[in-house]
Design brief:
The complex is a heterodimer of chains A (about 120) and B (about 120). Chain A has about 120 residues and is mostly beta strands. Chain A has no helices and eleven strands. Classes of the chains: A mainly beta (about 120), B mainly beta (about 120).
Chain lengths: ~120, ~120
Amino acid sequence: DQQVKQNSPSLSVQEGRISILNCDYTNSMFDYFLWYKKYPAEGPTFLISISSIKDKNEDGRFTVFLNKSAKHLSLHIVPSQPGDSAVYFCAASVQVGQGAQKLVFGQGTRLTINP
Amino acid sequence: GAVVSQHPSRVICKSGTSVKIECRSLDFQATTMFWYRQFPKKSLMLMATSNEGSKATYEQGVEKDKFLINHASLTLSTLTVTSAHPEDSSFYICSAREPGRVVAQYFGPGTRLLVL
């Protein structure tokens, strides 16, 4: 059961334009959502997060939007830069009892920024 | 952000041997660390949650006797793949949550395991 889904395996965007990465989820108990960036043979790097009680969080070129009614979130990168080319993972956090928490990851979207 | 290291970065071993992977939090103490596995072009799958001073919590379908986890100190967790087989070949990644951070986990660089 894939609780976090990134339906686009890849996305190509021209440098300077906006990149929009999408993520859908099914579990209404998720309390935080996060975006990670990953290069090949490296661990994911944390980018930005959003609480389930918010609908927007912005950090520099990165903005995450959350639509709880649609169980959908998106990451906007503007302007896109060549260094943004990587695989982006959407992750959701859920409490699993006694203060423990775990992350559930989507399948990832490979973003390519074209010069 | 917080720094998490992993060692080794790459290991090749013969089938039937055991391999130990270390995960260290370099600039903070982590009471909880996490071990993930990533198959090619797939998502990160949580294998287990490593708790300092207590037993690890394994996800459904992960063999605890196959993947031994020890969280001996607040900065070190180890994953031992026992009696490794070719199907255990994968990219193993650990993470830790920095104290005071609400939920974000910081990941190590990963370990590529190839079992021949």
